Amino acid sequence: VIRCRAAVAWAVGKPLSVEEVEVAPPKAGEVRVKIVATGICRTDDHILEGGFPDVEFPVIPGHEGAGIVESVGEGVTSVKPGDKVIPLCIPQCKECTFCLNPESNYCLKAHLSEPQNLLPDKTSRFTCKGKQIHHFLWVSTFAEYTVIPEYAIAKIDAAAPLDKVCLLGCGFSTGYGAAINTAKVKPGSTCAVFGLGGVGLSVVMGCKAAGASRIIAIDINKDKFAKAKELGATDCISPHDFKKPIQEVLTEMTGHGVDYSFEVIGHADTMTAALASCNMNTGVCVMVGVVASGSVISVDPMLLLCGRTWKGTLLGGWKARESIPKLVSSYLEKKFNSDLLITHTLPFAKVNEGFELLRAGK
Ligand code: NAD
Ligand code: ZN
């Protein structure tokens, strides 16, 4: 058993509490990882706010980390102690019918099919003050050591800087892949990205890499525009600057709507606005933002009847275990610069300050 620090969410609506926890050794098929760095994704904040009733408290959140294998349980063959790894919030078991389908990146062991509040044997490896603490998506990267099933771990290049490539565990890969894999943005096309957080800015990078000729970035926080431009946005607009709905503004700007639109906020109203912003016949709208569970979106069916496509994406469509290591290699070959997404670097004890910066739009 390892004693170390972890940020525990004891109850909905409470700040994280950095505590000493006990982390049990990995059982068969599991890997214990020393987490070196973790990002903060808005999804973690949705969890703290209680947006997902199926996440059980107390819990150690965090799902965008990178670390080093400390020890492995019986039967683990794909990683060994000392390997650099990225924990995967969407596993890839390589055995289920979804994993065997080349078109799918959703593994049937993922949380929408099977709760990941406990490890697959339905027990926890975390305790704190004598209480069992839940895992989050099996990765719980807000802990100095965490235990993860082997099929939710990707071994990455030993040269990778963990404090940078941790972003490839969720935010960057999700946004970049939403443009490249899910929308399949074509060269010369026009794109609109709603929401310029870490994930939305990664969509901008993906659209640019795919050769889009016009990328319209939309946010109510204009402080986000400089970075969006640096990453490839050609126009930046705030819905607050217009009297008419943003979808009408975008249709006027482009003639018949954009070729690809992306909602990267997580609100029902911006999801319908994004859908209505793309070309009525050939447009593709990708839903990236996560709405609180139980939310319902009402849309005019005519929006789809004319031919538009409305899609969602999980982790940008990447088959995680095989694709994240390749993305890390592309990072090392400087094919993209996800370092530009890093705004602040804080010591672990200041994790709540990180959330305050996220909520303040900084
Ligand atoms: P973030 O909070 O950093 O960014 C959201 C941005 O949207 C902010 O810049 C905010 O100012 C802007 N915004 C808010 N309301 C707006 C409005 N009405 N119009 C225009 N802009 C508005 O969040 P993030 O970490 O970038 O995550 C974005 C979303 O993606 C979240 O909902 C998150 O849960 C989701 N997400 C989904 C996946 C996936 O696999 N599908 C993965 C990671 C994150
Ligand atoms: Zn995330």
From TrEMBL:
For this record, the Gene Ontology CC terms, alphabetical, are: cytosol
Q: Which residues form the Alcohol dehydrogenase-like C-terminal domain?
A: 198-328
Q: Does the keyword Protein biosynthesis apply?
A: no
Cofactor dependency? Zn(2+)
Keywords of the record: Acetylation, Metal-binding, NAD, Oxidoreductase, Zinc
GO biological process: what's one of them? retinoic acid metabolic process
**InterPro entries noted in UniProt:** ADH-like_C, ADH-like_N, ADH_Zn_CS, GroES-like_sf, NAD(P)-bd_dom_sf
Q: Where is the Alcohol dehydrogenase-like N-terminal domain?
A: 28-156
PROSITE patterns cross-referenced by the UniProt entry = ADH_ZINC (PS00059)
Q: Which GO terms describe its molecular function?
A: all-trans-retinol dehydrogenase (NAD+) activity; zinc ion binding
Name any one Pfam family assigned in the record. Answer: ADH_N
Q: What CDD domains does this protein map onto?
A: alcohol_DH_class_I_II_IV (cd08299)
Tagged with keyword Ubl conjugation: no
- Which domain of life, per UniProt? Eukaryota
Q: Which family does it belong to?
A: Belongs to the zinc-containing alcohol dehydrogenase family.
Q: Please state what the protein is called.
A: Alcohol dehydrogenase I
Gene name of this polypeptide = Adh1_1
